[in-house]
């Protein structure tokens, strides 16, 4: 069986009608690839539409503020993607005079662009014969060829890239790359793959050996840590609050949040009363407080689980450098904070 030919034939019948597939414009292809990193198409599509509407060209994206970009990205997670997207757009416009890189070697120099993304853009937009290897491709190739090399090992990354390059249709690399990714996404799914209706089933090693669910193999992930967050949600006499911009190098850098106190465990009301809040903006300020949620709100990230409580602090005076409550939704915030703002409904206060 000709693997490459079968994949392309399948794609010609089953490919989804997605907006970035109607153009060879590298900006649109790049934008879609960055959005869809670690994001499913159904979740990423509305964001792609919103970005294209607000930033129809790379010049528009480059000239936007980072805060505007982060706000539009809000809810997608992995915010470094948005920051890198913006930085790369500025580099293209201000350093490359708006000329989008047209080959793998130059594309991979863009911030936030790795081997997969550079290969995708180079092949789809510019017909360069470079193979893509994403999660869908790893899964399909490991199952079809029965490869047990861990896909997140140095050896595995090299092995799968070499195999993908051998299978690549050199005449129509962009079409084939999209086909093999689409096949993995729709046919050879992570769970409940459609093996019975698969045109490759007669020669699929994993199906023959009854080990479909065991492939691909991944090395054990880094241990997930647990953190305990306490957000101080202040309300003053003028319907304002304290809203801070995160700094540092964390994943939520440049996003906004309420003042945060991290503790070693989840606090009860009595334990919260023992905290020394004189080290915060509440120093020498009279206030009352209540606990908004007795049960921790658990927010799961790839590397840590956040157990969170929100403490409502009512101060009996006006706050300095405070933010009006009705403006909170204008700021880019982590999903954890966004959900609380929507749930608490400050607008009715």
From TrEMBL:
Q: Which residues form the HhH-GPD domain?
A: 35-186
| Swiss-Prot/TrEMBL catalytic activity | Hydrolyzes free adenine bases from 7,8-dihydro-8-oxoguanine:adenine mismatched double-stranded DNA, leaving an apurinic site
Q: What does the cofactor field's note say?
A: Binds 1 [4Fe-4S] cluster.
Query: What's the EC number here?
Result: 3.2.2.31
Cofactor(s) listed in the protein's UniProt record: [4Fe-4S] cluster
Keyword annotations for this protein? 4Fe-4S, DNA damage, DNA repair, Glycosidase, Hydrolase, Iron, Iron-sulfur, Metal-binding
Q: Name one GO biological process term.
A: base-excision repair
Q: Does the keyword Transmembrane apply?
A: no
- Pfam families listed in its UniProt record: HHH, HhH-GPD, NUDIX_4
The protein's job, in short, is: Adenine glycosylase active on G-A mispairs. MutY also corrects error-prone DNA synthesis past GO lesions which are due to the oxidatively damaged form of guanine: 7,8-dihydro-8-oxoguanine (8-oxo-dGTP).
- Record's protein name: Adenine DNA glycosylase
